[in-house]
Amino acid sequence: MLFNFVAIALLQGSSLFAFANPLAEVPHRPRGCGSIIDEAKKNVAELDFKAHRRIATAVNGLLAAGPTTLNVHFHVILKDGSVRGGNVTDSAIQEQMNVLNIAFLTTGIQFNLQSVNRLQNSRWFSGAGPTVSAIQDEMKTELRQGGAADLNVYTVGFESGPDQGLLGYATFPSDFESFPEDDGVVLLHSTLPGGSTPDYNLGQTLTHEVGHWVGLYHTFQGGCRGAGDEVSDTPAEASPAEGCPVGRDSCSGGGLDPIHNFMDYSFDSCMNNFTPGQVTRLRDQIATYRNVPGGVIPPLSSLIPELPSIVIPEPQVPSSVLEEPTPVSSAPVEVIPSAPIPEASAPGAVYEAPAGPRPTARSFVDFFRRKI
Ligand SMILES: [Zn+2]
C-alpha cells in the first residue's frame, strides 16, 4: 500500500535488516535505512515533478510577508501509561516542535502544533512500521487529520516485527494524491528531545523525516553517480555518514560529504542545515503537491528575534497513569480527548482488544474510547 516511503532504521552490524536487539543494549549504532526509494521509483517521481513543477516563489504571484505556517497533528500512541510505553510528556512534544522550527527557519516554513491526541493501542505501538502496511494503514485511516498541507506525526515504539528498531519513516509529497490516507511521519517516541535513544534523542529524527515529507531525498541517494538527491549543492556521498565524521569525502570531486545536513544519517548532534538548493526544492515540492503557496524565503536575520530557545528536558520519568494531559502551551492547541490510560491499580498493564474476531480499525479504537 505504501509506495514511496522512507525509513530510518537502527542497524545492527552491517545488515540492513537486522533489528533484533533491544535499543538499550547497543550503545553506539549507525543510523541506517530500512527501506529507501529506489532509483526507478525516484525517476518516475522526478519525471512527474519536472512535468508539473510549480515554482514556489511565483505561485499565483503571491509574495508571502513571512514564514508559511503548516499545522501539525501529533498522535501519541501508547502501549501503557509509562514514558517507556510511549507516553511522551507534553514538554517533550513542545521541545520537539521548537527543534523542528529552528531547523526549518531557513526554509521559510514553520510548524504550529494544532492538536495532541493520545491513544492507547499496543498493537499499533509495536507494529506500525512500513513493512507491514495493514497495521499502519489501520492507524492512519483512523487518526489522520487535515489535508495535504497538514503534517500528521505518529509516535510509536517499533518494538516488534520486521521494523523493530526503526527510528522513523515518512511519505513523500508526490504520494499524497494516490495515497492521502498514508501521508505523514511515523516516529520512534524515544527520539524526541530528552528521549532514551542514544545519539538520536535531540529531536532531529523528526527534522529528517519532515525533510522527506516536504520532498527531499537522502544526501546519499544514488551514491556517487547520477542525479543523486536532485539538489546541486549537496555533494554526492557514496553511503550514509555514521556518527559525525568530519572531513569525510566518499566521492571524488564535488566537495566533502554533507555530514551536517539534516538529510544525512549522522548523529543528531552533528546535523545543522538544509542547503539553499534543498530549500528551493522543498518549497517547489510542497507548492506542487501540497498546494502550499510559495513566498519569499525570509532572511534568517529577520527571524532571529523569534528564535525559540532549545531547552532539552531532563530525562523523562514515568508519570502517573491517571495524570491528565497538561496543555502543551498557551498557544491555541487543541488537546483531543485522550484515550484512557490504564487504571492506577494496574500500572503498566497493557490493554488489548477483547477476545474474539479481530476488530476493524474503528471498533478497535472505539473499544478504548468507550473506557473513558
Ligand atoms: Zn531518511
From TrEMBL:
Gene3D superfamilies reported for this sequence: Collagenase (Catalytic Domain)
Domain named Peptidase M43 pregnancy-associated plasma-A: residues: 199-286
Name of a matching Pfam family: Peptidase_M43
Alphabetized UniProt keyword annotations: Disulfide bond, Hydrolase, Metal-binding, Metalloprotease, Protease, Signal, Zinc
Keyword Disulfide bond recorded: yes
Signal peptide residues on this chain, from the entry's feature table: 1-20
Biological process per Gene Ontology, one example term: proteolysis
Top-level division of the source organism's lineage: Eukaryota
Transmembrane domains' residue ranges: none
Matching InterPro entries: MetalloPept_cat_dom_sf, Peptidase_M43
GO molecular function term, any single one: metal ion binding
Family indicated by similarity: Belongs to the peptidase M43B family.
Name recorded for this polypeptide: Zincin
